[in-house]
Amino acid sequence: MFLEERREKILTFLDKNERATVNQLAAMFSVSKETIRYDLRVLAQKSLLLRCHGGAQVLRKTLQSDLITPSSDMDIASLLKKIGKKKKRVLLARNSQTTQGNVCILGSFNVDIVAKVERFPKGGESLMAINSTLGPGGKGANQAMAASNAGAKVHFVCKTGKDQFSQFAYRHLSDSAIHSFTLYQSDDASTGNAVIYVSQQDGENMIAIYPGANKTITESEIIAISEQLKKSDVLLVQLENNFDATFNVMRLANALGGKIILNPAPYSHEILQFIELANIITPNETEASLLSGVEVTDIASAQQAAREIAHKGVQTVIITLGSNGALLYENNQFQHIPALPAVAVDTTGAGDAFTGALTAAIASGQNLGWAVKYATAFASLAVEREGASNMPVHQQVLHRLSLNADF
């Protein structure tokens, strides 16, 4: 057995069993204990496992306090050259009752300050809030939570400041269903935050975001997650991080043969420089209008917008249409998936719920039509809950789909 193959099998064993002893691994691979110790030391240096007395344990959740210093000969360009052209991986279809694909998400973590109001205030008006809460949020964190609850094996990568909210983020992610994460910290920028108004009239929301440390992810920090990208079927990104980090991680995932889903929110024209790297793009009506130059007001205009977006180099376009469901455009064919009935309590994070669930279904090998239906059902359950990070689970989604057999 080759050295790299043995180390890969060590990681696979740890991933399944959480920990292993040196004696156990030496017997398993018929090598000396010293050889295993050296393997574990090398893997630990790459932050792929945690050494402990007599063996090692899986390293799923990492708080990276210090900035990573890249080696003089390793940047994105040289890493891409080293990887070379890889044969694209094919996702095998799996039973629709299970979703266990591997997903890597580069995204944002924000602290959400939510005020529930009877209606949105007018300009210059002050309103008394019905109540207010402080909780976890950010498109990346919300989508990671949704994909995890939908059954995917998610590795989430984000960055916070070195402030009181950094430990808040670490505790939230550690206690969640997210399989693993890398949490970087910035010496200079504070943790991102969002101020959110939620209307009692219809559950709609207004959001103002301060990105903070989300916009400070470095090239070396992207290089450091290459092993996670290599193991992932799908990379999911949004636009709440700095654009060079988003561009670099998409380039790296593309070179490694993974599928890339781009959620173009919040919209920026800078997306045009790397839109061709995405296999699937998931704009809402507003983002689709800005991307295409076509104002989306109904199904017909959404179809026109989808064609324009596809012409920019994206294979598959999925436009979310709120209460009108979603529109899928692939191979010059349209499929409209209607929304499922839901009693909207809080629409904050509805798009994140849809995108995360969609990603989980695609990573598991499901066809796109079913994946969009699944994501629509997931989002219909999400809006019936308070809080952007409060997501339903896979079995609840399957139950709602079973109640809507004609959907």
Automatic annotation (TrEMBL):
Any one GO BP annotation for this protein: D-ribose catabolic process
Keyword Nucleotide-binding: yes
Record's keyword annotation contains Kinase: yes
CDD domains, per database record: ribokinase
Pfam families: HTH_DeoR (PF08220), PfkB (PF00294)
Pathway entry: Carbohydrate metabolism; D-ribose degradation; D-ribose 5-phosphate from beta-D-ribopyranose: step 2/2
Activity regulation summary: Activated by a monovalent cation that binds near, but not in, the active site. The most likely occupant of the site in vivo is potassium. Ion binding induces a conformational change that may alter substrate affinity.
Main enzyme class: transferase
SUPFAM superfamilies per UniProt: Ribokinase-like, Winged helix' DNA-binding domain
Record localization: Cytoplasm
Catalysis performed (reactions): D-ribose + ATP = D-ribose 5-phosphate + ADP + H(+)
Assigned EC number: 2.7.1.15
Binding site for K(+): 346, 348, 382, 385, 387
Cofactors, names only: Mg(2+)
GO molecular function: ATP binding; DNA-binding transcription factor activity; metal ion binding; ribokinase activity
GO cellular component terms, semicolon-separated: cytosol
Subunit-level organization: Homodimer.
Protein name: Ribokinase
Protein source organism: Limnobaculum xujianqingii
